[in-house]
Amino acid sequence: MRRVRRRWRVQPYLFLLPSLVFLTTFTYYPILFSLRQSLYQASATVARPTFIGLWNYANLWADPIFGQVLENSLEFLAGTVPVTVGLALLLALLLNRPHFLTTVFRTAFFYPTLLPLVGAAAIWLFVYTPGYGLMDVYLRGLTGGGVNWLGSAHLALPAVMILTIWKNAGYYMLFYLAGLQTIPAELFEAGRLEGATWSQQFRAITWPLLGPTTLFVVLIASINAFQSVDQIWLMTGGGPDNRTNLPTWGRPPP
Question: What residue spans define the domains of the chain?
Fold first, then answer.
């Protein structure tokens, strides 16, 4: 009996061992190694890095470009996550109803997610191109003048935000559709019998029961907002004047 109990105590850790080895090799060790390397000053002209402690971090906080990057990141996060999540929820609510065109619209809204981010950025580069881009053509027809979206320090970051929202809204819509389909229809039927309006049902039934889905979507959207690289590299290169420079891009344009 002692041997059996000992085996049952060890067996769960054996099941976890492959995952632990994978995480240690590709996650924990690189993090610890990077933290250790950040305490040294390295140069191509010096054979051995010099230990300087937290001096790299002190220089980082004193760097004005780093401050601009943090500001850009917060603006990008605040400008994309709420709008993308809200749009995804709205699309899911509209497309959760049975209709003969529901599948067509679901496919159409999800299609941008299937595009590689490089391809999506190339499409929006054409939209924003001054002179003959789609945005400029319509603006010239309405106002008589165009706008250099990606060349303006005030408009470049919002222009990249629009691409991000367009690209991700359909992806997060699927999570909300899955969440809506797990809500029992009896709850809505009971609400209708009690005379509850659509907005009252949404506040009392739909929104609370979608809480776990919303938390998951917000976390994923926030992580993706801090990992934006491809569209920045293709569309702006971090400029103009570092106004679209984000942490993962990590360098000012040449």
Answer: 2-56, 63-235
Q: 10 Å Cβ neighbour count for 246?
A: 23
Q: How far apart are CA 135 and CA 162, in angstroms?
A: 13
Helix (H) or strand (E) holding 51: strand 50-51
Q: What pLDDT digit, counting tens, does each position of 167-213 carry?
A: 999 999 999 999 999 999 899 999 988 888 999 999 999 999 999 99
Tokens of 2: 């002692």
Model confidence, pTM: 0.82
Q: 38 and 57 in contact (C-beta within 8 Å)?
A: yes
Amino acid symbol at 212: P
* CATH number at 63-235: 1.10.3720.10
DSSP reduced 3-state for 231? helix
Smallest Cα–Cα separation from 235: which of 244, 226, 248? 244
